């Protein structure tokens, strides 16, 4: 017998950095909620909880499936997103707004900060305010840093972008040789930077294709060793393509860009340098240009690119990611429909040769505010990912454009 | 009756910045040359004329069509490219190498510098050295800056990248509002920066979609007007996405990055700043952050991305571009086969509603070393492209991913 659900409205929002498939989750949840009788209205928050407390809302109860499907295929957050990290006081205002709009179920699509918002809102509503509110977190983050998940919706598409970008850029680098450094998103976890290694392919050229070096935030970065690594590759291949996480740091946890910029007068100029999005790449390129001596003393062609925002919402998602992002949201609505009062969703993977994902209900407190890092078995030495990482990552990104050399 | 062609070998090379379809041109030429009886061997130069004078060559006479077709679909220059701009002395060495390898036809895929190399080599061989050599230029450049052409192979694919990148990034900017500046390649011509405007689509949201402002190298750039432009858009939409050519300059032709950096001590630090690939974007973002006052005095979220090398060889070419790059190369071989002794190829467009391109033989001296700029009718005011530009550009890029809003 189906449980009796609280009658009232459902609300849904999107939070944090956009992804290529976050609208698949939105649409998956809305379509599933449209079928639930006790749910009267389905309300969308504009720009996350920010829109809820500021009465910026949109009614999705009767948005036609055809329009929703077009939205699902559109990258980035269609409701708008938010960088707010609500504290308990802010969360109390969220609960107040839920009461005002007769909201009885709260769905929030986002990363570990968003799951923490869910957790706090859930606690305040049901214990302190004695207001029955069921809160569900729907996972999303290109950083892949949610605990208990094999991977998170959004990551496979961003990983696909990295693989395609490094593949094209490595061919570019082979064509006009030099040292090429590409800076990849992911301040605390190296999964996305590691995904660049998929660009090597699995053919006979894999040992010659870039990226030749991969620097992760999990491994302390040594600028001197960086030079000798590049020098060694350059001596062998006459070129070197490098994947660097934006989050690389010193052994004591300082961002590398600050240490490389030490020779600059930071009072007068530091602001310009350090606030710049290209700063880390430019500093590393400058470091190599000044300090790496190559045989024959010829001057080295060194360049850095910082991929920027397009890596998180490139309009060519991984097909698996699109499916899973939707499935995870539908799963959260199913948790609500079968009587769960709160929770989050984790994607796990069945052991075996063929890729097979499963969804699992977890507690909000299991995931809230925690950060997953690259496990040791995914890291190879101080400048690469392991074969185990490649085997883990490859099925997620879909088919990559094939390439051939002369 | 077919003309009698000089018996001997043919040589082919790729030059300048890679594109997504430059290998279509290579393969188109090689397959066509494989069918010409008087051509004994088809020799590929490694890294352009650099490989020719350094004996870095590869025999393509019997490379199987199946392998060549796989190479054709691979972005970037499969033979390797070169930035060398040969002077007459260098060109004399090229002619000498042609004689050494019994080369009687010379095909060079590249931009206006490459057509100039063809022209000089042709002149030295046939007049000064009395060596019969037939020289053909096959057009290629993402900058679209060759005279007499409607557009150049490589441009449509790079324009497609811009349209997709700005579309995704504009959705990102709508989701997390702020000022977003994207720096686009093209130091002397604004075609590629203008292509960003295709991201607006042609639906009812076209006036709200980014890019909201477009700054071309053909229009002198005024940092003060830049601020008021952004302020006006921001007041209307609460966000602003801006396309900026890397080549924007002051009315007297100085690069903007140098004028924005004037407050810095250039002796001590200028080098780091100006050599950085992110420097222009970071300087513009910093300029906006410091100097633009918005209503309510709240602090503005400003960010700049520089798309970098991936914009020229992204592995998702425009289908029209792939076809035309191949056709232009086949056309050059046909010119040779029917007895022409030198020349280049221009793509022209038939007037009419439906897109239809034609190929035309032109003289090397018509195109060599000349630069085409955006014509006045493609430019709208000081910060946009015209509808005529959009109509011209749209058919080139292929189908873009559709998007929908809530």
C-alpha end-to-end distance of chain A: 66 Å
Structure class of chain A: alpha/beta
**For the CA atoms, what is the radius of gyration of chain A?**
23 Å
Biggest interface, chains and residue tallies: A-B, 72 and 72 residues
Give me the oligomer status: homodimer
The helix/strand order of chain A is EHEHEHHEHEHEHEHEHHHEHHEEHEEH
Shape descriptor of chain A: elongated
Widest sheet of chain A: strand order? 3-2-1-4-5-10-11
List the helices and strands and how they pair.
The structure is a homodimer of 406-residue chains.
Chain A: E1 8-14, H1 22-34, E2 39-45, H2 49-53, E3 57-59, H3 65-72, H4 88-100, E4 103-110, H5 112-128, E5 134-139, H6 155-175, E6 179-184, H7 191-195, E7 213-215, H8 223-237, E8 240-245, H9 256-260, H10 266-275, H11 279-291, E9 302-306, H12 310-313, H13 319-337, E10 342-349, E11 357-362, H14 364-367, E12 379-380, E13 384-385, H15 387-393
Parallel strand pairs in A: 1-2, 1-4, 4-5, 5-10, 6-8, 6-9, 7-8
Antiparallel strand pairs in A: 2-3, 10-11, 12-13
How would you summarize what this structure contains?
By secondary structure, chain A is of the alpha/beta class. Chain A is built from 15 helices and 13 strands. The first copy, chain A, has a 7-stranded mixed β-sheet, with helices on both faces. In chain A, strands 7-8-6-9 form a 4-stranded parallel β-sheet, sandwiched between helices.
């Amino acid at each position: 017998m189906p449980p009796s659900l609280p009658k009232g409205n459902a609300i849904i929002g999107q939070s944090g950095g956009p992804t290529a498939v976050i609208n698949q989750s939105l649409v998956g949840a809305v379509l599933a909620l449209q079928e639930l009788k006790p749910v009267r209205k389905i309300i969308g928050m504009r720009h996350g909880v920010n829109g809820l407390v500021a009465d910026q809302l949109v009614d999705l109860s009767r948005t036609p499936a055809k329009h929703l499907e077009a939205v699902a295929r559109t990258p980035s957050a269609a409701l708008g997103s938010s960088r707010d990290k609500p504290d308990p006081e802010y969360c109390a205002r969220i609960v107040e707004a839920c009461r005002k709009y007769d909201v009885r179920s709260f769905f929030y699509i986002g990363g570990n900060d968003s799951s923490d918002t869910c957790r706090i809102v859930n606690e305040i509503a049901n214990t302190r305010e004695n207001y029955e509110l069921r809160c569900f977190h729907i996972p999303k983050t290109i950083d892949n840093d949610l605990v208990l998940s094999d991977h998170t919706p959004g990551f496979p598409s961003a990983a696909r972008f990295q693989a395609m970008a490094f593949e094209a850029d490595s061919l570019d680098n082979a064509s006009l040789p030099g040292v090429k450094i590409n800076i990849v998103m992911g301040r605390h976890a190296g999964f996305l930077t590691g995904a660049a290694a998929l660009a090597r392919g699995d053919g006979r050229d894999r040992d010659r294709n870039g990226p030749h070096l991969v620097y992760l935030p999990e491994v302390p970065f040594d600028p001197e060793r960086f030079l000798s690594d590049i020098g060694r590759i350059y001596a062998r291949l006459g070129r070197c393509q490098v994947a660097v996480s934006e989050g690389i740091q010193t052994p004591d946890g300082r961002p590398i860009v600050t240490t490389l910029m030490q020779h600059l007068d930071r009072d007068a100029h530091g602001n310009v340098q350090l606030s710049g999005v290209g700063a880390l790449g430019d500093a590393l390129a400058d470091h190599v240009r000044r300090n790496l001596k190559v045989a024959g003393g010829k001057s080295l062609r060194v360049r850095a690119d910082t991929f920027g925002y397009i890596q998180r919402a490139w309009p060519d998602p991984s097909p698996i990611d699109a499916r899973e992002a939707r499935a995870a949201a539908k799963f959260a609505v199913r948790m609500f429909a079968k009587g769960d009062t709160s929770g989050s969703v984790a994607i796990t993977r069945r052991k075996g040769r063929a890729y097979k994902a499963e969804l699992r209900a977890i507690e909000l407190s299991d995931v809230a505010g925690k950060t997953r890092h690259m496990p040791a078995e995914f890291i190879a030495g101080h400048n690469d990912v392991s074969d185990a990482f490649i085997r883990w990552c490859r099925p997620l990104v879909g088919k990559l454009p094939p390439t051939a050399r002369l």
